[in-house]
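Justification of computing resources. Each target in the renewal requires a structure prediction run like the one illustrated here; the chain below, 285 residues long, is used simply to show the kind of job we budget for.
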Amino acid sequence: MISQISSLLKLRIGVIMTFTALAAMIVTPGRQPGSFGIIVLAFAILASAGSAGAFNQYFEVDLDRRMPRTQNRPFVTGRFKKSPLWLLFIAVLLIAGVGSSALVLNGVAALYIFLGAFFYAIVYTVWLKRRTWLNIVIGGAAGSFAVLAGAAAVDPVMSPVPILLALVLFFWTPSHFWSLAIAKQQDYADAGVPMLPVIVGNERAAVAVMGNTVILVGISILPFFYGLGWLYLTASLTGGGYFIYRNYQMILDPSPKIAMKSFLASLLQLVVLLSGAVLDALLLG
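Resulting structure tokens:
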């Protein structure tokens, strides 16, 4: 049951979003929230991301049945039965996340947390995913709102570094997800989902990933010029360089095996980048 709940709430995505929010909080100048505030921020991001993930699966049972990657999700297997009670659970989870952040942190942080869930559940899942290859580009802004929420918990008035980190998340998402979509291109084609590799083919999609990643890495360097130090810059160049290398391999061979290596490299790049930002702020700030 625990594994089913974890799958329903897409907790792995929630953990990544929580890490980005906490990293943004740490690097934002100003008075840091106390221990209770940090716990509330982490809970709010996890709860709101979980509600959006659960709604995504509730809404997309028909698509999930057609794709081997998603055929074990609990609404598809029948472990969980679709009913209005699940929508109530999803709403309560979202209200708990947004409400707790509004009460303990501030209204701006709560707004960003709500917008993150809204963009993933409604903008991406309902409006864009089945209609356009831009689905993950626009819907991917959900990750940027987690960064802004973490920064707003310290200072509702955004400084350059969290804005730039939010842009990093915005450009990271297409490179991350298109790498996966290249690896699973046939699944998306069979399900009728217009992901970029389905529309233009894996070869051209791999070139698009490379172009997007170069922009991503370029933006990721900029916080160095706005207060973060050499430790962050080293992490940015190291993680970004490795991601570009895997993108280049994918251009030469856009096979599922190489595309999955690019997908995993995107996760490593984000972890290295954010870890470098946190360590830089704590040790050198």
